[in-house]
Design a protein that fits this description.
mainly alpha
């Protein structure tokens, strides 16, 4: 079974970085396949121990049982860690996809603002289309980030949702201002533009509270959540190594 154990140990060196659905499935399958072998080895070791009278031989039989149970613990804790890593990483990717959508919205909003610098009817109409595209991108971003929070509640993304909501509100005012310009209603256009400026300023203030790297919190939360599992895995690996050494020493003397 040790080839599988070595693969598991290697994957746990940096699970958040390296885990993927394919790797997780492969290791899950491989570890499940070796568990019956470990169970069989455990039965053999316990059966041998029951028929031994020499204290050294009884001890090495006991060490074999410990070596087996330690491997089983490594599998249990290792899979828990990898499952947690995959969940956190998947949510992190959703968060990143959402933030890319926000960046896409920024480009559309800038393009819309540039068009109305020369407020011809054609430019205003084109600006409204760009503004709507920005709103659509922001709504997509909000959905992705909400999914990330739902899938991994340990990382709170309410601040990002609030920021995006305010951005959508501001762009709604921009659309209304453009429509008023098309309707040749200058007073309404100015009122809607003032509302846009106010909401945009509030959005900028909300942006100050956002993380510089919106995905960094996921790895940190994963590290915190799996700290005890890692410690338990390391303890099981240390115990397995000590038992293996005792068994090799016994077999070497034989």
């Amino acid at each position: 079974t040790d080839e599988v154990m070595l693969d598991l140990d290697e994957e746990l060196q940096d699970p958040f970085e390296s885990v993927s659905e394919e790797k997780l499935q492969s290791i899950r399958q491989a570890t499940q396949e070796v568990l019956p072998t470990l169970d069989q080895a455990d039965e053999l070791a316990k059966s041998a121990s029951a028929n031994l009278v020499n204290s050294d031989e009884q001890d090495v039989a006991g060490q074999t049982v410990t070596a087996i149970s330690s491997r089983e613990s490594m599998i249990s804790y290792g899979l828990q860690i990898l499952e947690a890593a995959y969940t956190a990483k998947s949510a992190s990717q959703q968060m990143m996809d959402g933030w890319y959508a926000v960046a896409e919205a920024d480009e559309d909003a800038r393009a819309a603002a540039a068009l109305v610098e020369d407020p011809t009817p054609e430019n205003i109409q084109a600006s409204m289309e760009q503004t709507q595209a920005a709103i659509d991108a922001l709504n997509n971003a909000s959905q992705l980030i909400s999914q990330a929070q739902q899938n991994y509640p340990a990382v709170n993304r309410d601040a990002y949702i609030s920021y995006i909501t305010k951005r959508v509100e501001a762009l709604g005012y921009a659309l209304a201002s453009d429509q008023a310009l098309l309707d040749r209603n200058k007073e309404e256009a100015q009122a809607q533009n003032d509302a846009y400026n106010q909401a945009d300023a509030e959005a900028a203030e909300l942006a100050q509270g956002l993380d510089e790297d919106p995905t960094a919190a996921y790895e940190a939360a994963f590290d915190q959540a799996t700290k005890q599992d890692f410690e338990a895995f390391e303890a099981a690996r240390t115990q397995a190594g000590a038992s293996d050494a005792a068994i090799r020493d016994y077999l070497g003397k034989q």
